[in-house]
């Protein structure tokens, strides 16, 4: 019995020591919260009600956020929410103090469309806020309150942030003021697409919910490294995936808004081919060991890229001294460059690396949208395909794809081949010459127009 008691005591002691060791390995956030929570603000907004007319359809848009949160998209399509006495629509978010004289940073979507914006400090003091400027593309907004000696945050560096590093968020989820949640950095450089393509988001597992938007993301040194912005959710609540705007980008935006009230981004003027980063065979056929870089499918006429010597089929490996691992890395890098600045662009062209000097232009979304409109397509050999001249445009039209390597690679009837192995295909004579010179037992990169899309294929050669 004595021996059994000794064993149990020893086991309990080991468990206690292990538990203590684990506890000692976890960070203590209490000091950080005490020191920096006064820099976090609660933001409330109010928007005047809009009278419904018969042309506005049903009342789906008038449904209060309370119902939307719990019912999501499950409301019947003909649901008509009638509000006999319309009241101002209210919003909630968070923000943080940038300077002692009252500049505050938050998300654009927190204050977008609001008629009245108010900021409340941790001591309960409330101020009416002026919107200095907004940038929907990065979801950043700069506010100003008339106050002095405020408790400003310390700005850190999101570029130095490491995956796996502890981070902490302070905000007002569901109107619960100054709630604290913590987690780790799950990933960096996340591309969410849409208007956010200029933001390489920080992904974390910090619990973020409605009301946290615009609040700061701190590192363990008490420095702000991001602005909590979005969550991935199917229910309306937190599901373990949150996204923050890197503070380096946010501060660049804030500085421009403070100085001029607007944001100017750099513009390169290219269209990229996203599937390239998932196609190792294509990358290897173009001279790379890994599917890294941004494959340029199109260069816009008169763009900075064209003037700087960038061509279709180039693979951009570095931009302004920073590596381009994936196509999604390039837009944020370009967007951060001050227009009219000249940067070095390292490209891979026909298997050779070349550095180009490119003077970056000013992004104009209207002009870019017009230039980025889909291209209209006009209109034997070892690859076992039948082609003819493409008519009024350069290239050859694929009339028939017979059994063979091209068919297996995915070439289709109606495709227009415009480049092969880094060489332009202007007509059938070019095509026949290139095919004759193809090396055996390899693969050739082929650029085609398929409908209104640009597609690259790696076709094995025999």
Number of spatially distinct domains: 4
**From the helix content, strand content and strand pairing, which structural class follows?**
alpha+beta
Mean pLDDT: 83
- Residue share in helix: 10-25%
Key structural traits:
alpha+beta; Thrombin, subunit H; Pdz3 Domain; six-stranded antiparallel beta barrel; elongated
Topology of this protein?
Blueprint: H1 2-25, H2 30-36, E1 40-47, H3 65-71, E2 89-97, E3 103-106, H4 108-111, E4 116-120, E5 126-128, E6 130-135, E7 140-144, E8 154-155, E9 166-171, E10 179-190, E11 201-204, E12 216-219, E13 223-231, E14 242-246, H5 247-260, E15 266-267, E16 270-272, H6 280-285, E17 294-299, H7 304-307, E18 315-319, E19 322-323, H8 330-335, E20 342-349, E21 352-359, E22 361-362, H9 365-371, E23 385-389, E24 396-401, H10 405-409, E25 416-420, E26 423-424, H11 428-436, E27 442-450, E28 453-461
Parallel strand pairs: 8-13
Antiparallel strand pairs: 1-2, 1-4, 2-3, 3-7, 4-5, 6-7, 9-10, 9-12, 10-11, 11-14, 12-13, 13-14, 15-22, 16-17, 17-18, 18-19, 18-20, 20-21, 23-24, 24-25, 25-26, 25-27, 27-28
Describe this protein's structure.
The chain is of the alpha+beta class and 462 residues long. The protein has four domains: 36-51 and 59-144, Beta Barrel (Thrombin, subunit H), CATH 2.40.10.10; 154-260, Thrombin, subunit H (Beta Barrel); 266-371, Pdz3 Domain; 385-461, Pdz3 Domain, CATH 2.30.42.10. The chain contains eleven helices and 28 strands. The strands form five sheets. The chain has a seven-stranded antiparallel β-sheet. A six-stranded antiparallel barrel has the order 9-10-11-14-13-12. Strands 16, 17, 18, 19, 20 and 21 form a six-stranded antiparallel β-sheet that branches. A hairpin with a 2-residue loop joins β27 (442-450) and β28. The protein is elongated and about 80 Å long.
């Amino acid at each position: 019995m004595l021996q059994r008691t000794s064993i149990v005591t020893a086991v309990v002691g080991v468990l206690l020591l292990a538990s203590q060791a684990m506890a000692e390995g976890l960070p203590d956030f209490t000091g950080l919260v005490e020191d920096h929570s006064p820099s976090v603000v609660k933001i409330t907004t109010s928007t005047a009600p809009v009278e419904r007319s018969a042309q506005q359809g049903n009342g789906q848009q008038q449904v209060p956020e309370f119902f939307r949160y719990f019912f999501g998209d499950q409301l019947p399509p003909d649901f008509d929410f009638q509000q006999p006495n319309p009241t101002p629509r209210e919003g909630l978010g968070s923000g943080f103090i940038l300077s002692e004289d009252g500049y505050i940073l938050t998300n654009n979507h927190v204050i977008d469309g609001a008629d009245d914006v108010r900021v409340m400090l941790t001591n309960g003091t409330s101020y009416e806020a002026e919107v200095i400027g907004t940038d929907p593309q990065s979801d950043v907004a700069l506010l100003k309150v008339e106050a002095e000696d405020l408790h400003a945050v310390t700005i850190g560096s999101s570029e130095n942030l490491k995956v796996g590093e502890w981070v902490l968020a302070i905000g007002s989820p569901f109107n619960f003021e100054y709630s604290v949640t913590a987690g780790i950095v799950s990933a960096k450089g996340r591309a969410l697409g849409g208007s956010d393509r200029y933001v390489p988001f920080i992904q974390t597992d910090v619990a973020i919910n409605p009301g946290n938007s615009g609040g700061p993301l701190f590192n363990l040194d008490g420095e702000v490294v991001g602005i909590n912005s979005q969550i991935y959710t199917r229910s309306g609540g937190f599901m373990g995936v949150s996204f923050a705007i890197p503070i380096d980008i946010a501060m660049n935006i804030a500085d421009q808004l403070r100085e001029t009230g607007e944001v100017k981004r750099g513009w390169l003027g290219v269209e990229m081919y996203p599937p390239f980063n998932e196609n190792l065979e294509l990358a290897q056929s173009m001279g790379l060991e890994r599917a890294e870089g941004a494959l340029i499918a199109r260069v816009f006429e008169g763009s900075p890229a064209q003037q700087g010597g960038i061509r279709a089929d180039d693979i951009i490996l570095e931009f302004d001294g920073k590596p381009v691992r994936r196509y999604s890395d390039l837009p944020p890098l370009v967007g951060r460059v001050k227009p009219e600045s000249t940067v070095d662009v390292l490209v891979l062209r026909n298997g050779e690396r070349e550095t180009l000097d490119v003077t970056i232009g000013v992004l104009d979304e209207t002009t870019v949208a017009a230039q980025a409109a889909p291209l209209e397509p006009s209109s034997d050999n070892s690859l076992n395909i039948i082609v003819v001249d493409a008519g009024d445009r350069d290239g050859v039209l694929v009339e028939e794809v017979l059994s063979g390597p091209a068919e297996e690679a995915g070439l289709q009837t109606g495709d227009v081949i415009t480049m092969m192995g880094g060489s332009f295909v202007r007509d059938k004579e070019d095509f026949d010459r290139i095919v004759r010179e193809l090396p055996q037992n390899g693969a050739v990169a082929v650029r085609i127009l398929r409908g209104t899309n640009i597609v690259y294929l790696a076709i094995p050669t025999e």
